[in-house]
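Figure 2 data, in text form.
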Amino acid sequence: MAANWREAGLSAADLALCAYAEKLTAQPEMMTDEDINQLRAAGFEDQSIHDATQVISYFNYINRIADALDVDQETFVHPWEQSSPSHPSEKG
């Protein structure tokens, strides 16, 4: 999914949400009512759309702050596709 969400076998709702997130991230000035309508058509209610928009926007914001201030990456965070066990008892 991290490499190509379009070919990850996601549900229609998840595909709609990913498309929305990608557009909001890369082309925020191009967002229209139709983007919201597509999420509604995929089954999202307005509160969920609001919450998703807040989370997507926050990650865009904080990444831009980190980039602007040349913040070092956190070495304990692994890329999504290189997930590690989430609980110490699951290790080795």
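Caption note: The chain has a mean pLDDT of 88.
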